[in-house]
Design goal:
globular, two-stranded antiparallel ribbon, four-stranded antiparallel β-sheet, alpha+beta, 6 strands, about 120 residues
């Protein structure tokens, strides 16, 4: 089973505790180096990509999961904007709705549940 790109053994089945996923995400990122997280709507190929939101709450699970996703995506150049695949968007949304309790995270998680292309950009200090 893969959750947010992390592999869990098949013998564990399809139910992995949210707390375990959150702990692995927390362990995998250093948020002290993150200056800003920007989310862009649209596609670089078919539609114009526009800034959707700049995430202000960097101590949320959502911010940590987006940073984790960003750091683990292959890219041909350093930095820049990275496309989010629907499966990752959906998994991040479901976990954020369960773990985060603020309005900003709730709004973004709801946005991640639609089919609109979303791209993430993490800017470091």
């Amino acid at each position: 089973m893969f959750i947010l790109g992390m592999h869990f053994p098949a013998d564990r089945g399809n139910v992995i505790p949210t707390s375990e996923v959150a702990a692995l995400v927390e362990k995998g990122v250093d948020m002290s180096k993150v200056k800003e997280i920007k989310l862009h709507e649209g596609s670089t190929k078919s539609t114009k990509m526009e800034l959707y939101k700049t995430l202000t709450k960097k101590d949320s699970f959502l911010a940590k999961a987006l940073t984790h996703y960003y750091l683990n995506q292959e890219t041909s150049k350093e930095g820049g904007v990275k496309y989010m695949y629907f499966t990752n968007k959906y998994q991040i949304a479901e976990l954020s709705l369960e773990l985060d309790k603020d309005a900003e995270c709730f709004e973004i998680a709801k946005k991640f549940q639609d089919m609109e292309p979303i791209n993430v950009e993490v800017i470091f200090n």
